[in-house]
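URGENT: need a sanity check before tomorrow's submission.

F., can you look over the HNH endonuclease record below? I want to be sure the sequence and structure line up before it goes out.
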Amino acid sequence: MEAEHCPLCGRVLGTVNIDRHHLVPKTFKGKEQFPIHKICHRKIHSVFTERELLHSYHTWEALRAHPDIQNFIAWVANKPPGFYVRTDTSARKKSR
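Structure tokens as predicted:
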């Protein structure tokens, strides 16, 4: 059986520190969930508001195209699957 990969960073998911992400936020009736590393999930929600996720960042491609997410993916690329550290909210999101 082939290992499952994180749809955001592309690393193998592993078996610990896994969350589920709704591309369309639950607050806007999103149903479909995807397994994702906890650190990747926290990064998404530290950068974007629920409305931004609904209107502009509801695909993996759009998420990966954002500069903050690109920098994060480059940073996390060589970390082991279960790696996790707390993610701070971005200054850009805090300023809104």
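My own read: The longest strand covers residues 18-22. The chain has a mean pLDDT of 92. If you see anything odd, call me.
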